Each structure stands twice: as structure tokens, then as C-alpha cells.
Amino acid sequence: MTSAAKGSPSPRLTRNQAMVYDALVSASGAMTAYQLLDALRAEGLNAPPQIYRALQRLTDIGLVHRLESTHAFVACQHGDGTGHDTAAFAICDDCGDVVELSDARLARDLRSLADGSGFTPHRASIELHGTCERCRPAND
């Protein structure tokens, strides 16, 4: 077993999990499982189940988030894998950049809204699609 990437949290990761996590940390945006497979093939990851198992474990421990709308994955930008069962993402439709937004008030408001309807959420993910500052035209 190996530990997580440099500067990352302490969970012990398998070699495959560490490689997938490192690839996501280094990525300029979200990556699909097949993009990860292509990127890690030379490292010995040759089968989709290897990638999916690693992604499942990384998601379970909070180091990776799945973007539902794009079926892609990003490394948690908080780096600790804890304390945020509610995540929001700003996804640039032009360049693919993804920023994880964290706001305790939003999480609290969503829990309150769900509680008011008799629903108990286990996790929440909000995805905002638009244009990032870099891609937005100067005259916008």
C-alpha cells in the first residue's frame, strides 16, 4: 500500500488508487474513467475495472468527487476528504475547468430545506455550468 499524493491526506491508498488520485490532482479539469485509463495505461492500469474500483474507493473516502452531469471525476480541492457532504462545482463549459465551491451556509440551508420536506439527505452535489473568468470575453 502507498500513501496518498504529496501534500494530501493520510488515508493509505493502494498503488492503483494513488495513481488515479495523482492523475486527478494533476489534471487541468475533470477526467472520465476512460481518460484516466488512457493516461495511466503506461503505468500498468489496463482494464476499466481497475480504474472504476480505484475511483469508487477514492469517492467513498472523500478524496474524489463525481460530476454527475459530465460523468467525470475531480480530486477534492479541500484535500482532506472530510467535512463536506455537500459539494458545489463551477464547471466552465468552454475550457472544462472545475472549481469546487464550499460554503457551510449553503450546506446548512440545503439540509434545512430537505428536513422541512421530511427528507434526510446523505450527500448533495450542485453543479453550476457556465463560463469561467478566463474564458469570458473581455466585453462581457
Walkthrough of the structure:
The model is unreliable at 1-9 (pLDDT under 50). This protein has two domains: 2-75, Arc Repressor Mutant, subunit A (Orthogonal Bundle); 86-130, Ferric-uptake regulator, C-terminal dimerisarion domain (Dna Ligase, domain 1, 2-Layer Sandwich), CATH 3.30.1490.190. It has helices at 15-26, 33-40, 48-60, 104-116; strands spanning 2-3, 12-13, 64-67, 72-75, 86-92, 98-101, 124-130. It is globular, with a radius of gyration of 16 Å. The chain is an alpha+beta fold. The strands form three sheets. It has a three-stranded mixed β-sheet with strand order 6-5-7, with helices on one face. Strands 1-2 form a two-stranded antiparallel ribbon. It has four helices and seven strands.
